[in-house]
Design brief:
Low-confidence stretches: 29-36
Distance between the termini: 54 Å
Strand order of the largest sheet: 1-2-3-4
Strand content: 15-25%
Shape: elongated
CATH topology of the largest domain: protein ne1242 fold
CATH class of the largest domain: Alpha Beta
CATH superfamily of the largest domain: protein ne1242 domain like
Mean pLDDT: 78
């Protein structure tokens, strides 16, 4: 007779919860799933301000491609690009705050400035 271990119990629980979550999302979405919300005027508006002594700028971009990650928006801190992405639920993230979501690109830029605590934004290496 084999005894159940904590690892097996947690694994079985995690698997069951994941299955329920997928089933719940599939049934909630149904065949007529709604697309991601469209950008509001506040999200598409350009901004240029000084926040905590740093100049933050943002504006819609029209070139697409890898550099804007399909978000259609570019953000700069002191002239250096802050990579931002728009999530499927309409929220925004940046390379500085990748695990925290924000309502607008301006909010992402301000949060990145606060997180940097005066440090320079270092450009990402492109492969």
């Amino acid at each position: 007779m084999s005894r159940i271990t904590r690892r097996r119990a947690l694994g079985a629980s995690a698997g069951a919860l994941a299955g329920l979550a997928v089933a719940g999302v599939a049934s909630a979405a149904g065949p007529s799933a709604t697309p991601a919300p469209r950008a509001t005027a506040a999200e598409r508006a350009a901004f240029d301000e000084v926040y905590q002594g740093r100049r933050i700028q943002g504006a819609p971009s029209h070139h697409g491609g890898h550099h804007d990650h399909g978000s259609g928006y570019q953000v700069h801190i002191d002239g250096k690009e802050l990579h931002v992405m728009r999530n499927a639920d309409g929220t925004w993230i940046s390379v500085v705050n990748h695990y925290e979501t924000f309502a607008t690109p301006l909010a992402v830029a301000r949060a990145a400035v606060a997180e940097l605590q005066g440090a320079a934004l270092v450009p990402l290496a492109l492969a």
